[in-house]
Amino acid sequence: MIAKSGEDMFSQSSEDIKPERSQAETPYQGLIELQDAINYKLQRIAKEKGITTTSNSNFALTSDLAKRGTLDKHTASKLKTLIELNTLGLNSPEITHEQVTQMKRLFNNISF
After folding, report:
1. Which of 27, 28, 50, 31 is CA-nearest to residue 39?
2. Distance of alpha carbon 65 from alpha carbon 91, whole angstroms
3. C-beta separation of 46 from 71 below 8 A
4. For the chain, what is the mean pLDDT?
5. pTM score, two decimals?
6. What is the pLDDT of residues 78-96, one digit of tens each?
7. Residue 1's CB: how many other CB atoms inside 10 A?
8. What is the pLDDT of residues 3-36, one digit of tens each?
9. 17-53 as b/e, with b when 16 or more CB fall inside 10 Å?
10. Is the dihedral of CA 105, 11, 109, 75 positive or negative?
11. Contact 9, 1 (CB under 8 A)
């Protein structure tokens, strides 16, 4: 996915991901896209490592991957913070496109 401001939702090193143009017309939709992007990347990492997980939330999946040593503690901590920010944004009618864009940048800057 590509945010409206043009930055990729996924790093360029992701070989099997073809970034799509963001379809978000509202900040809420942008947050849903971010939530889906996080989930997709976590699920892909688990699959690549041969890990079967029953975690339903991004937060739980991050914890599960960290416990197994697939994600280091620092990366897991940053990712959990972003997931919490995303959840707060989803529950805030005042969230702006710029704030969503900043959260997408944070996601792009987390190396995992």
Report:
1. 31
2. 26
3. no
4. 84
5. 0.77
6. 999 999 999 999 999 999 9
7. 21
8. 444 444 444 443 333 345 577 899 999 999 999 9
9. bebeebebeebbebbebbbebbeebbeebbeeeeeee
10. positive
11. yes
